[in-house]
Specification:
Elements (H helix, E strand, L loop, with lengths): L30 H16 L27 E9 L3 H8 L5 H14 L4 E11 L4 H17 L3 E9 L9 E12 L14 E6 L8 H8 L8 E2 L4 E2 H5 L7 H10 L4 E4 L4 H6 L9 E3 L8 H10 L3 H7 L4 E7 L4 H7 L6 E6 L1
Parallel strand pairs: 2-3
Antiparallel strand pairs: 1-4, 2-4, 5-10, 5-11, 6-7, 8-10, 9-11
Helix pairs in contact: 1-4, 3-4, 5-9
Length: about 350
C-alpha cells in the first residue's frame, strides 16, 4: 500500500568478506610514472623557450607573446600531424629518440611551405602503460628538434590509457603554430609557365610510406640486419630523421625569390606538388634527373612494387621542392648546396 515501507531483518553478525580496494594504479594508470616523466623532461623543454614564452611548465595552458613588430601584417599559420606507422620501426628496434624529431620537423616543413617560421609546438603522447624512460626519450627528441628550429615546446599531453594500445606501443601527434608576413605568404600568385622546380634531398622515407615499406621488407629482412648499400642496419636507415628545411629556406623566403614550396609527404612528388600549381599550368617532372637512394630500391625489389606505386607512396629521395623563376635558379642552387639540390622539372 502507498505510504508503507518494507523492512528486511538481517542477522546480527555478518561474515567478514575482504574487499579489494580499487585504485587508479590498480586500474592501470600510474600518476607516479607521469610525474617522473615530467620531472625528467623539464630541462629539455625549458631549453626551447624564447623570451616570448610567458609561462613555465605545468600550467593549464601555454602563453606566448603575440606581438610581431617586425612584421607588416603578421598571419598565424597552424598545422597538425603525426608520425604514422614509422612508429612501428621504433617499437621493433627499441630506438625512441628520433621519432619526436620526425614529428616536429614534419610540422615545421608543412608551415614552411606557407612561408611561415615556427613559433611554438604542442605534442600529444599516448600509451597503454607509461614507461617513463621511453616517454622521456621521445619527448627529448621533440625538444631537440624544437630547439634546432627555434620553436618553443610550449605544452603537451602525456596520456596513459590501459587497453587502448598494444604492449610496448604508443602513438603521438603534434600541432605547430608559426607566423608569416602577409606579403610573403607562399605560394606566390606570380607562378608562371617556365618556372623551374628544384628538389632538395631527403634523408630517406621521412614519415611516409611505412605501411607499404614494412609489408615489402619484413617478410624478407630483419630490422636489425646490416645492409652494405645502406651503410648500416635496415632499422637505422628506416629511422633516419625527417629533415627540416626551415633554417636553410627561411632566409631565402625573406628575400622573395622563392615562389612556392612543396613538402613531399604522403602522395609523393606529384601528389604534393600539384597542390601549388595554378590552374592552366601543368607539372613536368624529369624522373631521371636524380639518383634514387638505395633504401627505395631495396623496398621496391623486396615487394615487387611498380614504379607508379613507388612514386605515389614515397618521396624517392626528394624531401622539398622549390619553385623559382629561371633567372633565380643559380642563386637558389648555390644557397642550397648543402642539401644536394637538383633541377627536377618545371611548370608548363
Amino acid at each position: 500500500m502507498a505510504g508503507i515501507t518494507q523492512s528486511v531483518c538481517l542477522p546480527f553478525f555478518l561474515p567478514f568478506i575482504p574487499i579489494a580496494m580499487l585504485t587508479y594504479s590498480s586500474a592501470g594508470v600510474s600518476i607516479d610514472a607521469g610525474d617522473k616523466t615530467v620531472d625528467a623532461i623539464k630541462p629539455y623543454i625549458r631549453r626551447t623557450f624564447s623570451p616570448a614564452v610567458m609561462t613555465d611548465i605545468g600550467l593549464f595552458g601555454g602563453l606566448y607573446d603575440g606581438r610581431f613588430p617586425e612584421l607588416e601584417h603578421p598571419v598565424l599559420v597552424a598545422s597538425t600531424d603525426g608520425v604514422g606507422t614509422k612508429l612501428k620501426i621504433a617499437f621493433m628496434t627499441g630506438i625512441h629518440g628520433t621519432v619526436g624529431q620526425d614529428l616536429v620537423n614534419h610540422c615545421v616543413n608543412d608551415i614552411l611551405a606557407c612561408g611561415a617560421k615556427p613559433l611554438f609546438f604542442l605534442d600529444y603522447f599516448a600509451t597503454g602503460v607509461l614507461k617513463s624512460e621511453v616517454a622521456t626519450e621521445v619527448i627529448k627528441g621533440l625538444a631537440l628538434a624544437c630547439e634546432q628550429n627555434g620553436c618553443a615546446l610550449i605544452g603537451g599531453e602525456t596520456a596513459e590509457m590501459p587497453s587502448m594500445y598494444a604492449e610496448g606501443e604508443y602513438d603521438m601527434a603534434g600541432t605547430i603554430v608559426g607566423v608569416v608576413d602577409k606579403p610573403k605568404i607562399l605560394p606566390h600568385k606570380t607562378l608562371a609557365k617556365g618556372d623551374i622546380l628544384i628538389g632538395l634531398a631527403s634523408t630517406g622515407l621521412h614519415t611516409n610510406g611505412y605501411s607499404l615499406a614494412r609489408a615489402a621488407l619484413f617478410p624478407k629482412y630483419d630490422v636489425n640486419q646490416h645492409i652494405d648499400e645502406l651503410g648500416g642496419t635496415l632499422g637505422e636507415s628506416l629511422l633516419a630523421v625527417h629533415r627540416s628545411y626551415a633554417n636553410l629556406l627561411l632566409p631565402l623566403i625573406d628575400k622573395g625569390n622563392i615562389k612556392a614550396l612543396s613538402h613531399i609527404t604522403g602522395g609523393g612528388i606529384v601528389g604534393n606538388t600539384k597542390r601549388i600549381v595554378p590552374e592552366g599550368l601543368e607539372l613536368h617532372i624529369d624522373w631521371s634527373s636524380w639518383t634514387i637512394p638505395p633504401i627505395f630500391s631495396i623496398i621496391q625489389q623486396a615487394g615487387s612494387i611498380i614504379d607508379e606505386e613507388m612514386r605515389k607512396a614515397f618521396n624517392l629521395g626528394i624531401g622539398m621542392i622549390i619553385a623559382v623563376a629561371p633567372e633565380h635558379v643559380d642563386e637558389i642552387m648555390q644557397a642550397c648546396a648543402s642539401e644536394k639540390p637538383v633541377i627536377i622539372g618545371s611548370l608548363k
